[in-house]
Design brief:
About 35% of the residues lie in helices and about 15% in strands. The chain contains 14 helices and 13 strands. It is α+β, with helices and mostly antiparallel strands and about 425 residues long. The strands form 4 sheets. It has a 5-stranded mixed beta sheet. It has 3 domains: about 110 residues, Nucleotidyltransferase, domain 5, CATH 3.30.420.40; about 140 residues, Nucleotidyltransferase, domain 5 (2-Layer Sandwich); about 80 residues, no CATH class. Strand 6 and strand 7 form a beta hairpin.
Length: about 425
């Protein structure tokens, strides 16, 4: 059997027998998703040759993916890989002839623990994984629970702080935005800390670095709150919720490699957190208000008001309707210009079933259109551009050829018919 597992920057393959004993593995750079089928075909062939076997001896191929994977092999979204709306099974079926199984990585890990690992004696348990995100595999009464569409277990996107930090999924306040590797790195950077790898993070913690211990303590607090909520919701017949820590299997690269950023935090860092959080309060060298708070205070005093509001007062931010936001901006001499991604502003991009009634209802009011689009697409985070009131008369929301004539454009186009021609113009 062969398994493939993509993470940011690379994809790993492992071959194992029916007894779950790994025989060998290979790792390749992660290609563009359009080249994924060819890459997996090559990776599998390389691994089979490496162990001296034939392709017809491969019983099955599995692929575990960090993201929302449906029962039919459709990947709805993987924030860490940057993939969205990808029909994985249709993409891979043509190049992989063996029986193919595609699932979320936490579901696959939970199944492995149930069959061969720490879950063999338990009918109900939760498998947690925290690296570039936080996921959960739910085993309930001896069966993997997937939910109606197969997307259950997205534990990292449960809300831990109302209107909190922006998560890679686009929402705010998710657990992943507080406990995953990119969250730890960002939190350290806020106080002037810098780590290049998870090994360095571990070494600094073991050496008693005040800032690192403070940040890990914060991370452990958020993770503990989320985990306790999960345990109370998925409790076995036993009256004693329990943890079964798994051995470190992380082979993920460090934070700072631009090709592998966000690939995963080593489980060793989790063991450091366990040491800190497992101590009695009086033994904890640095609490959430320990000596590191002095450095935090000095750092915050040097920042602008907007930084303080966004990074430290986010639990107290109050959501509002877009129309209310524009009205408040008007009190400061500002008016609405556009979105940072203009394509989201055109009603026609949402299909005739949306565009026609939307334009009939809103007319030429772009602010009203934006408000209704918030409801239609459930938009909770915006990147909105404002201008001073005196520029309002120059705003046009319809494309005007004369206004665009003097602009320069850069784009990539493919020929619909015939050969591609390159035309240079000044």
């Amino acid at each position: 059997m062969i398994g493939g597992h993509p993470v940011p920057g690379e994809i790993s393959y492992v071959v194992a027998g029916l007894d779950d004993e790994p025989l060998d593995k290979v790792t390749h750079p992660l290609p563009h998703r359009s080249e994924l089928a060819a890459e997996m075909q090559a990776g599998i062939a390389e691994l089979v040759a490496k162990v001296g076997r034939r392709m017809d001896e491969v019983r099955a191929v599995g692929m575990s993916v960090p993201g929302l994977v449906g029962r039919d092999g459709h990947l709805a979204h993987s924030p860490n890989l940057g993939w969205r709306d990808l029909q994985l099974r249709n993409l891979l079926d043509s190049s992989i002839r063996q029986p193919l199984y595609i699932d979320n990585n936490c579901n696959a890990d939970a199944m492995a623990e149930y069959l061969f690992g720490s879950g063999v004696d338990d009918e109900t348990f939760v498998y947690l994984d925290s690296s570039s995100g936080v996921g959960a595999g739910l085993f309930l009464d001896g069966a993997l629970y997937r939910g109606r569409g197969g997307y259950a277990g997205e534990f990292g996107h449960t809300k831990i702080v109302p209107n909190g930090r922006l998560c890679r999924c686009g929402n705010c306040g998710c657990l992943s935005a507080y406990v995953s590797d990119f969250a730890i790195a960002k939190r350290l950077q806020q106080d002037g800390g810098q780590v290049s790898s998870t090994d360095e993070l571990l070494s600094l913690a073991e050496a008693g670095n005040e800032l690192v211990l403070q940040v890990l303590s914060e991370v452990g607090s958020f993770l503990g709150i989320g985990a306790s909520n999960l345990i109370n919701n998925v409790q076995s017949t036993s009256h004693h919720p329990w943890w079964k820590p798994l051995p470190s299997r992380s082979l993920y690269p460090p934070f700072d490699d631009p090709h592998r950023r966000g690939a995963g935090t080593s489980c060793r860092a989790g063991r450091v957190q366990d040491r800190i959080l497992g101590a009695q309060p009086a033994q904890r060298p640095f609490g959430r208000c320990g000596p590191g708070a002095r450095g935090l205070h000095q750092f915050v005093r040097r920042q602008e008001d907007y930084y303080l509001s966004h990074e430290y007062l986010e639990p107290f931010n109050s959501p509002c309707y877009f129309q209310d936001f524009v009205e408040r901006a008007g009190g400061y001499g500002l008016c609405y210009l556009a979105e940072a991604q203009p394509s989201t502003m055109f009603a026609s991009n949402y299909g005739e079933g949306v565009a026609e009634p939307l334009l009939q209802e809103c007319g030429h009011s772009q602010v009203l259109i934006e408000q209704y689009l918030d409801f239609i697409v459930n938009r909770t985070f915006r990147q909105t551009l404002l201008v001073h009131h005196e520029r309002a008369e120059d705003i046009r929301y319809r494309l005007d050829g004369e206004r665009l004539r003097d602009l320069h454009f850069a784009a990539s186009f493919s020929s619909v018919e015939g050969d591609t021609r390159i035309v240079e113009s000044a």
